[in-house]
Amino acid sequence: MKTESNVMYIARLAVTLLLITSVVALALAGVNAVTAPAIAKLTAEKTQAAIQAVLPGGGEEMSDLPAVDYEGADLVSKVYKGENGYAIEVTPGGFDNTITMMVGVDTEGKVLGISIIKHTETAGLGAVAAAGTPAGESFRGQFVGQSGSVAVTKDGGAMDAITGATITSRAICVGVNAALACAATLG
Amino acid sequence: MNFKKQFNEGLLTKNPVTVQLLGMCSTLAITTSLFNGIGMGLAVTIITICSNVLISALRKVIPSQIRIAAYITIIAGFVTMVDLFLQAYIPALAESLGVFIPLIVVNCMVLGRAEAFASKNGVLASAVDGLCQGIGYTVALVVVCVVRELLGSGTFGGGLLGPGGAGITIIPQPFPAMQMVMPVGGFLILGVVLAGNQWLMKYLEKKNKKKEAAK
Fold first, then answer.
1. A140 close to A114: Cβ distance less than 8 angstroms
2. Is A163 in Cβ contact with B182 (below 8 Å)?
3. What Å distances lie between residue B97 and A48, A121, B29, B63, B143, CA to CA?
4. What is the pLDDT of residues A14-24, one digit of tens each?
5. Which of A3, A51, A124, A155 could form a disulfide with A87 if both were Cys (CB 3.0 to 4.6 A apart)?
């Protein structure tokens, strides 16, 4: 084989691959353009539903949070202020990835409720924490009315962990604690 | 093209999960409820059909030295599209399957069909192959799901039926064995299903031989 034909051949390989990747990228851009508004709308709706679920009456997002340091401050992403308290979005690290959840805290520093917006926990185990099933409801329900700090029974706390998902349950506790600490600084 | 043969191969004699042992990661990880099994099966089926068709159409254009890179790019493209569509239009399923939808890219069954079938056969035959293999994958997943869900959670139809999608309780708590939902249960049940498939194949073979002998 001549050198020149080798060069041509390699160029053909590169161009073919370039063409394929370009077409795939273009197609993906198209699909993204179609689905992005729907996904953004769903995420916004979910966030709103989560706020409503943990803070009756809903709330407005607080733009300037006081720059005070407390444990878990880096986990707090957004705070919504309502009539009777706050809905605080926290992102603790779960078993697989960060969990995005909303924690409602009343003005006396008691948990009003928790709602999980986004997670990638194991289906059937950690995912129970976010599920609309009786097991999920009862897990999330035990946080209501808690104050100060919470922990799972294995760590000496009062929260029953989800069977087979201690790490997820701990992550939820970390998130709730961060929200409680945040609410305490807001008064 | 022989649809009946391809269907039989996909479902039984060359079942991607129970005979070829491909896509084990997803098979073991998500088979905890009926909804997951059906959803994952459908997603993989659609992706396998699409990637098989496109790869078959391009089989004479793609030089063999870069075929794996080209196949993976095409497969990853379809997987990302399905992921985006699921997130936008079937969020419950996207949530339930989570990270395992993007991971279909590395599901060896999809690449396996591209390499073993679509790169050597026509477009229509490749589409049928994708469909048949996808059905085989779905059926295997659903069988593992139903057994695992029943033994592990004591329910049937999790994610689809019952209050809040918890499934219909068949074995009341505390009798179901939690271990069945955990990885160990996945391995145990998958092993039994593999054995079951082997038995069924042998049984059908014997039956066919007897039939021929009788002739």
1. yes
2. no
3. 23, 10, 9, 35, 17
4. 999 999 999 99
5. A51
Provide, as residue numbers in chain A, all residues whose Cβ is less than 8 Å from the Cβ of B152.
124
Residues B137 and B112 sit within 8 Å (Cβ to Cβ) = no
CB of B66 within 8 Å of any CB in chain A?
A: yes
Does the interface ipTM go beyond 0.90? no
A-chain CB neighbours of B28 within 8 Å are none
Task: Compute the nearest-CA separation of B72 from chain A (Å).
Answer: 10
Q: Is the peptide bond before B176 cis (omega within 30 degrees of 0)?
A: no
H or E segment at B67?
A: helix B67-89
What is residue B51's three-state secondary structure? helix
**Chain A positions in Cβ-Cβ contact with residue B153 (cut-off 8 Å):** 124
State how far residue B63 is from chain A, nearest Cα, in angstroms: 7
For B179, the closest chain A residue by CA position comes to A164
pLDDT tens figures, A110-161: 999 999 988 878 766 788 888 877 888 899 999 999 888 899 998 888 899 9
Residues of A near B (Cβ–Cβ under 8 Å) read: 12-13, 16-17, 20-21, 24, 27-28, 31-32, 34-35, 38-39, 42, 96-97, 118-125, 127, 130-137, 163-164
CA angle B186, B189, B192 (to 5 degrees): 145
Conformation bin of residue A148: beta by default, left when phi > 0, alpha when psi is -120 to 50: left
Adjacency order of strands within the sheet including A100-106: A60-61, A76-81, A85-90, A100-106, A111-118
Residue B78: CB atoms within 10 A of its CB come to 23
Using alpha carbons, list the distances in angstroms from residue A157 to A112, A144, A152, A168. 19, 15, 5, 15
What is the value of pTM for the model shown?
A: 0.79
Range of the domain at A179: 1-187
Which residues neighbour B166 within 8 Å (Cβ) at sequence distance 6 or greater? A131, A133, A134, A135, B155, B158
Amino acid at B140: A
